[in-house]
Write a structure and sequence with these properties.
The protein is an alpha/beta fold and about 400 residues long. Helices cover about 35% and strands about 15% of the residues. The strands form 3 sheets. Strands 2-3-1-4-5-6 form a 6-stranded mixed beta sheet, with helices on both faces. A 4-stranded parallel beta sheet has the order 8-7-9-10, sandwiched between helices. Strands 12-11-13-14 form a 4-stranded parallel beta sheet, with helices on both faces. Helix 13 runs parallel beside helix 15.
Length: about 400
């Protein structure tokens, strides 16, 4: 068994992994395929339709690809009593899928697989096709040509058997590497592209009550690593030591990055000539769409009495006394607008009906991937609902968003 701290650490790391969704009809061998690729009995394999119910997740190192999360989904044609619910969960998984795998058998495609292809193309999700169960029966030329006509000539197609093909892992990896998203192959910088090599960046890191004992939270760890990789000098301090840290430097820092919750105090300490932003704003760029979040924050001034605000978190966690999403941001909104707002919180990968809200405020997304955040932004845009994030909201309510965004104008 893992301790709470070990479980927390492993869970957060999922956000850094390539999410590979496994999709297809019931009994085409999705779970058997996943078990062979991972070399573990992750999913139950059965001839009974509907064996896979909830999404099964497996994190692993898939060399040479690196860190990945496999998402094994229920059959898209599930006709069992719980089939509708299972299919809904399967379709929601698409929103956090970086790369998709459609598995069919020797019968090829029908309307179910064609529907998946249209969805992946709509969301610009790269995908491959695995024609499974070749040990039972080879797919006919006619059926294979239909598959090719649906997916196009550039989509990888792998013919295999999850139960007897000894080379299946190597074949799968070879196809996967060729279709990896560019931003996974060439990981974007968090902050290193905003400052010059050898420059100094001060990181203001309050002792976060929500972080496991003895650790700092994941975005701060990632930022430190990014600065090291970018040949920069990082100087980590608490708010109480910030002024002394600035005075101790022979030259002004190239940038100060603060925890959003300390934005007000830090902005009063850091001179105007020194660029200032927050971890949450850096991650708005890394995990989402910086421009969309900035525009969404401006909608705060348009809120009226009775308007509904959704504070959207990517993970479930135990709320502390002064929780940022449940206490601090609601208080800032009420003070900034002076309106009687209805503020609701929602946590997890699924989404509630967002059509009833006038503004959505997303968390920093440290525990989810960019694909999921972008899908949420896309959905909000389709509904005409402004969407922003924690860092943008805090800086806007404090009147310092313009200053916090100047570093990105370079």
């Amino acid at each position: 068994m893992y301790t709470d701290e070990e479980f927390y650490f492993m869970k957060t790391l999922k956000s850094l992994r390539l999410h590979i969704g496994i999709f297809g009809k019931t009994n085409v061998g999705k779970s058997a395929f996943l078990n062979r690729i991972t070399n573990q009995d992750i999913s139950i394999v059965s001839e009974i339709a509907g064996t896979t119910t909830d999404v099964v997740e497996k994190s692993m190192e898939l060399l040479p690809v690196g860190a990945v999360v496999f998402l094994d989904t229920a059959g898209i044609n599930d006709t069992t009593a719980l089939g509708k619910e299972r299919i809904e969960k399967t379709m929601k998984v698409i929103n956090r899928t970086d790369v998709a795998v459609i598995i069919c058998d020797y019968k090829g495609f029908d309307e179910y697989e064609i529907g998946l292809v249209k969805k992946f193309e709509e969301l610009k999700i790269p995908f491959m096709v695995v024609v499974n169960k070749s040990d039972v029966e080879e797919i006919s030329d006619v059926a294979l040509e239909k598959v090719k006509s649906v997916v196009g000539e550039n989509t990888p197609i792998l013919k295999t058997s999850a139960t007897s093909d000894k080379e299946i892992v190597f074949k799968f990896k070879a196809k996967l590497v060729k279709m990896l998203p560019e931003d996974f192959v060439n990981s974007p910088k968090i902050v290193g592209d905003l400052v010059s090599p050898k420059s100094t960046v001060i990181l203001v890191i309050p002792i976060d009550k929500e972080a496991p004992k003895g650790r700092i939270i994941l975005p701060q760890v990632q930022t430190i690593r990014d600065l090291l990789d970018s040949d920069c000098l990082s100087y980590s301090v608490k708010v109480s030591e910030l002024a002394e840290a600035i005075n101790n430097l022979k030259e002004s820092p190239a940038l100060v990055v603060t925890d959003s919750q300390a934005f007000r105090e830090v902005s009063q300490i850091v001179p105007e000539n020194i660029p200032l932003t927050s971890f949450s704003i850096l991650f708005a760029r890394l995990k989402g769409d910086l421009k969309a979040f900035a525009e969404g924050a401006k909608a705060i001034d348009e809120l009226k009495d009775g308007d509904k605000v959704l504070i959207l978190e990517s993970c479930t966690h135990h709320a502390i006394e002064d929780d940022i999403g449940r206490v601090k941001i609601p208080n800032l909104l009420l003070k900034k607008t002076g309106k009687n707002l209805v503020i609701e919180n929602y946590a997890g990968h699924d989404l509630p009906d967002i059509s009833k809200y006038n503004l959505i405020i997303h968390c920093g997304a440290c525990m989810t991937n960019r694909r999921e955040v972008l899908s949420r932004i896309l959905l909000a845009n389709e509904k005409g609902i402004p969407i922003t994030n924690y860092g943008m909201t805090i800086s806007y309510c404090l009147g310092i968003m313009d200053r916090a965004m100047k570093i990105f104008d370079k």
